[in-house]
Automatic annotation (TrEMBL):
Keyword Membrane appears in the UniProt entry: yes
Protein name: MFS transporter
MF (Gene Ontology): transmembrane transporter activity
Region of interest (Disordered), ranges: 384-417
InterPro entries: MFS, MFS_trans_sf
Signal sequence, renumbered to the chain: none
Organism (species): Sphaerisporangium rufum
Keywords assigned: Membrane, Transmembrane, Transmembrane helix
Taxonomic lineage: Bacteria, Bacillati, Actinomycetota, Actinomycetes, Streptosporangiales
Keyword Nucleotide-binding included in the entry's annotation: no
Membrane-spanning residues: 21-40, 46-66, 166-185, 214-238, 244-268, 275-297, 360-381
Amino acid sequence: MTGYRRVLAIPGMAPLLGISLLARTAITAAVMALTMYVVLGLRMSYAAAGGVAAAMTLGVALGGPLLGRVMDARGPRFVLLVTVPAQMAFWLGVPMLPYGTLLGAALVSGLLMVPVQLVTRQAIAAMTAPGQRRAAFALEAVQGELSYMVGPPIVILIAARASPDVVAWGVGAAIVAGGVGIALLDPPLRAGDEVDAGPVTRPRRRQWLGRGMLAALVMAFGTTMLLAGTDLAIVATLEKAGQVSWAALVVAVYGVASIAGGLAYGALPRSPPTWVLLGLLGLATVPAALASDWPWLCVAVTGAGLLAAPTLSAVAHTVSGLAPAGARGEATGLQSSASSAGFALGAPVVGVAIDASVPGGGFTAAGLAGLAAALTGWLLAGGTSGRSTRDDPGRAGVAARDPCRTATGPDARGTDT
C-alpha cells in the first residue's frame, strides 16, 4: 500500500480523485436517471427510455474526441466553462421536456458532458512519476467500479421512494458540482518537463494514431464490450433459473472482485502487456457459462472480476503513455469513445448469442469478444511475444514524444502497462 500512499500524497491528487469520484458516480447514474424519468415520469415504455439512453450514449461517444481536442488547444477550464452550464440547463429542464425534445436534448447533453475522465486521466499522467503511474491508474479504474456500483442503485432507490424529477435534479447537481470542483482545482495536464520545453505544438494525427494506439483503442472497445455482455448474461442466466432478484448480488460480487484485483494490480512492480490481461479476462469469463444458479455464478464471476479493473487500468495507462502532450486530450477522448461504443454494442451482440443458444452462451460470446480484441491488439502492436515498448517504463515515453521514432532508448516519461 506504500505506492498508493505516495500517489495520494501528491499535492492535489486526493482532492482530484475525490471530486472525480463524485462526478463519475453521477455521470454513471445519468442514463438510469433518464430511464426512470421516461418510465415513471412520462409513463412511457422501456423501449422509449432506451432511445433516450442511446441518444446520450451516442453523444458521449461523439463528444469525447471533440472535447479532448478543444482541451488540448484551450485548456480544461475553457471546456468546463462550456460543459458545466450545458449540464445545468439540461438537468434542470428534464422534468419540463416532452419526449421528442428530451431525445434531442439528451444527445446534445452527451456531446457536452463534463469531461471528468479526460481531465482526470491527463492529470494523472502529468502529476505522477513513471513508477507511480500504474498505482494511480489502478485507483482511477477502481474509482470507475465504485461509481458503477453506487450510482445506478442509488438512482433506482430514490426514484422508487421519491420522484424521477428529484432524481434528475440530484444527478444534474452532482455533475455540475463535480465540474465546478475540477475547474477550481485546475489540475495540470502537462508534466513539468513538458512545461519546461515550452509551448506544445499539435502533432499531426498520423504521427501518434499509429498501430500501437489503434491496438489500445481496440482493446478499450473489447474490454467494455465484454463487461456489458457479462452483465446481460448474468441477468439472463438468473432469469432462466427463476432467481433474477439475485442479479444485483452477483454484479456486486463481480464489482468487489474487480476492486480487489485493481488494487493488487496497482501494487505490482511490473505487469503483463494489456493484450495478455484482456485475453485472460476473456478466458476467465467463459467458464461462467457452466453456472446455473446464483451461488455458483458468484463463484464463477469472481475470477473474471479480479481481472476487470486491471485491464481497464492497463488500457488507460497505455493510451496516456502513447499520446504526445499536444494530443493527449484527443487520444483520451478517443479511448472514451471506444469504451462507450463497447458498452453500447456489448449487450445487443451478447443478446443475439443468448437468443440463438442458451443464457450461458452470453458468457461465451462476451469472453470470445474479449479474446478477439486481445488478439487484434496483439497483432496491431506488432505480434511480439514479449513486452512491447509501451510495456517498458524505460522505452514507452520515447514513442509518446515522437511516435514516428522507434522506441529503443531510455526515457523518464515511460509507462509500464
